[in-house]
Specification:
Layout (H helix, E strand, L loop, with lengths): L19 H6 L9 E2 L3 H6 L4 H13 L2 E4 L5 H19 L7 E2 L1 E6 L11 H4 L2 H11 L4 E10 L27 E7 L11 E3 L13 E2 L9 E2 L1 H10 L12 E5 L3 E3 L9 E9 L9 E4 L3 H5 L8 E4 L1 H7 L16
Parallel strand pairs: 1-2, 13-14
Antiparallel strand pairs: 2-10, 3-4, 4-5, 5-12, 6-10, 6-12, 7-11, 8-9
Helix pairs in contact: 3-6
Protein name: Phytanoyl-CoA dioxygenase
Organism: Salinomyces thailandicus
């Protein structure tokens, strides 16, 4: 296992602090994420202006999450969604062997890593890259590309939610080091399982191993201790926002969140791509088909450590990847 950062880089606390200074630093009580609506000029240029970029960075610092609407054309999502819904049903048919996270209603599922389904506006969105670069530094490392599919309820099975958890279930810095770029392939609503988010839980004493139950390697690792959830809900409770199709959601990896039940008849797919700070020494690499190599190498906004494989191998292997805690997001010495 990779050698991780020393835990002394951050403070651990079994309880939430109640000092006046803490309340001042975490003053916002809004449970709704900030949504930025780019202007037509910003959409044409693929760049946010200074004011919207500042708002995005401020929201990530304060809330740990920001939504940017209307940045991906729907037709760029629809074809990928059709394929991934078909793939989700194949994975679901595996029964107990399906790659689920916490419960069978939430599948981890990779998109097909081949040119046919790769749209730059989805996987290399310039506004998403601008925001992650603005917070993490020049040329973040894109080393994780997967997704979460909330499945419709199966006959005889009660829909389940995930426990509230953090993806940072390892020793990590107390400052921003990784951002998740989520792309909903359809509109997200509470009915189809939009993610529950706990804004502001990505920093300070709320972020660290001391607030978690379970160890890395367990299916339920990163789960937040129940007494702390009850305390936090009195300060700033969770929300399950509606996210318009065509939006991107950028989330600090440390933020508390939970996958929710899908009570509709439609599979709900959300892509998840992680951008790590350029100084963060995570050794993971993407596995991509060789027909994407020229596309990836022609862009200059991200570092993309990748293993290039033949198209046939990519097609045969992408639904048989690791899932959940088989990925180690920690950094090496």
């Amino acid at each position: 296992m990779a050698t991780l950062l020393r835990q002394s880089a951050f403070r651990l606390a079994p309880r939430l602090p109640t000092t006046a200074s803490h309340k001042a630093r975490f003053a916002s009580t809004s449970t709704s994420p900030v949504t930025i609506k780019p202007s037509s000029q910003e959409l044409r240029s693929g760049r946010l202006g200074e004011r919207n970029l500042e708002q995005a960075i401020r929201s990530l610092h304060d809330d740990g999450l920001v939504v940017v609407s209307n940045v991906i054309a729907h037709e760029h999502l629809d074809r990928l969604n059709t394929r991934m819904v078909q793939d989700a049903r194949k994975l679901q048919a595996m029964g107990k062997d399906m790659p689920f996270n916490y419960n069978p209603g939430n599948l981890q599922q990779d998109p097909p890593p081949i040119r046919d389904y790769f749209e730059n506006t989805v996987f290399l969105n310039p506004i998403a890259n601008q925001i992650t670069t603005g917070l993490l530094g020049p040329k973040p490392k894109w080393t994780f590309c997967s997704g979460n599919s909330a499945m419709p309820p199966e006959p005889g099975r009660q829909p389940q939610r995930q426990p509230v958890h953090t993806d940072a279930d390892f020793a990590h810095p107390s400052h921003p080091f990784a951002l998740v770029v989520n792309v909903p392939l359809i509109e997200f609503t509470p009915a189809n399982g939009s993610t529950e988010v706990w804004l502001g839980t990505h920093r300070g004493e709320l972020s660290g191993l001391g607030v978690q139950d379970g160890q890395h390697g367990d299916r339920a690792s990163g789960k937040i201790k129940q007494p702390l959830l009850e305390q936090r809900s009195q300060v700033r409770g969770p929300s399950q926002p509606v996210i318009e199709k065509g939006s991107i959601v950028i989330r600090d990896l440390r933020l508390w969140h939970a996958g929710m039940p899908n009570t509709t008849e439609e599979v709900r797919v959300m892509l998840a791509m992680i951008h790590f700070a350029p100084w963060y020494r995570n050794p993971m690499r993407l596995e991509l088909a060789e027909d994407l190599q020229s596309v990836i190498e022609s862009q200059g906004e991200l570092q993309v450590p990748a293993n290039w494989v033949g198209r046939d191998q990519a097609v045969q292997s992408y639904l048989n990847r690791g899932f959940g805690n088989s990925y180690d997001f920690g950094q090496v010495e």
